[in-house]
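F.,

This is the one I mentioned.
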């Protein structure tokens, strides 16, 4: 892939990453009201598109196979705490971590998943904003396969189930004879 193609991909993924972080921050702050679950579903689905684009290109290998140093990433724990508070009882769910290697059911938290995705995206955005689009793509691709892709996929399944339950699990109506 040519440098310009990498930059175009970095621009697209960077846009998705920033949109995800902005959306997550707004929802954690109370925007969206009762529609938090479907809105989170949209955010995760959109950033998952960026992940699938990263999966579709060949592996990025950095020169010397070394990531340039960055200062410490920002603390996103306040975001996780705010999401956990907004999600309440729906925060906890069960997931199979790897359906091909580890079929044990594992407890997960949506707030952890959503912020794990954000943390990896932020790290890549820091490379991107430093004018290193190849390093950003490398990081996003590596962390997609290693971390955030799994968390986004698990969160997507959980959120889809929650939204489906809110739409389909309606109380049976009592029918009276006339």
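My design for it:
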């Amino acid at each position: 892939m040519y440098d310009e193609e990498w930059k175009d991909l970095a621009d697209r993924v960077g846009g998705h990453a920033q949109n995800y972080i902005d959306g997550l921050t707004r929802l954690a702050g109370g925007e969206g009201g009762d529609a938090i679950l479907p809105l989170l579903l949209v955010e995760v689905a959109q950033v998952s598109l960026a992940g699938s684009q990263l999966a579709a290109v060949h592996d990025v290998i950095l020169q010397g196979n070394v990531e340039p140093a960055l200062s410490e990433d920002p603390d996103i724990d306040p975001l996780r705490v705010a999401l956990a508070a907004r999600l309440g009882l729906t925060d906890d769910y069960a997931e199979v971590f790897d359906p091909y290697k580890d079929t044990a059911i594992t407890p997960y938290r949506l707030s952890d998943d959503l912020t794990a995705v954000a943390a990896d995206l932020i790290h890549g955005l820091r490379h991107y904003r430093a004018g290193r689009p190849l390093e950003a793509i490398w990081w996003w691709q590596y962390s997609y396969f290693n971390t955030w892709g799994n968390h986004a996929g698990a969160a997507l399944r959980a959120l889809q189930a929650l939204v489906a339950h809110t739409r389909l699990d309606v109380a049976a109506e009592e029918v009276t004879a006339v």
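DSSP finds five helices and two strands in the chain.

Talk soon.
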